[in-house]
């Protein structure tokens, strides 16, 4: 097997499960451009399409511009692979003949993808004898795209899931081999939901690989009538329109996403706040009345009126002294 992934639990835990199950992994492939910046290359020199990685590396002190690039680095698939004695390849151009030839030399039976940011070219998709499979953190065909867990929080969903499917040229659209639902309880953080999806997905992935090897795998096509695609979140997608949302949705979005993306802009009435966390919510229309007001709040906290109900916020550093007037478009 060739395993394609990147730093974070959604690649690391499935790779760890495959290794523990005794699956023979030939090599790990990771995206070079997500580990290197322009400053890492000599001026005017194009990086090679792929290069071997000899030791785990990370760029310290660099914060991604968009939260879509954030990944928990506590569990590293690169460290797991190197510890197991596996080759690790950083790739920048998968379509290059050199990259395809290098990976084809492993003659893999299966290609496995778990949180890899590049589409695999057709010569790689058709390379493995048993097929190429992808682990996706949603109940496909819903929420195709690069960051489905963000949209679970954004759309206020109470359920998501994990899908193992066959890869094809269309993104996240191949036939489904296995799938499992996962609940999204109130107050869960992005990191915890990602961890639960990774643990569930790891188990499904091992089962799928074993079924492919045994010739017992079954798949069924995705229902295109039920399909949806969501892009990578933009800064505008991080805005919380508290006056338009019920308290429960505001609470769950801030609670889930702020620890992943950083303080979130919140518009309410005629001001904008930046929230670093949500601590509690009340909404009589949802059967959760506020029976008594909390005592005096510290300057770093605020009761936020929502479309219905209230949310108890923790403000970002400095927000206690500054409430920014909302623009006409935001209010």
UniProtKB/TrEMBL annotation:
GO terms for molecular function: methionyl-tRNA formyltransferase activity. The keyword Secreted does not apply. InterPro entries: Formyl_transf_N, Formyl_transf_N_sf. It comes from the Bacteria. Transmembrane segments: none annotated. Residues 74-209 form the Formyl transferase N-terminal domain. One of its GO terms (cellular component) is cytosol. Keywords: Transferase. Coiled coil: none annotated. This is Formyl transferase. It comes from Thermogemmatispora argillosa.
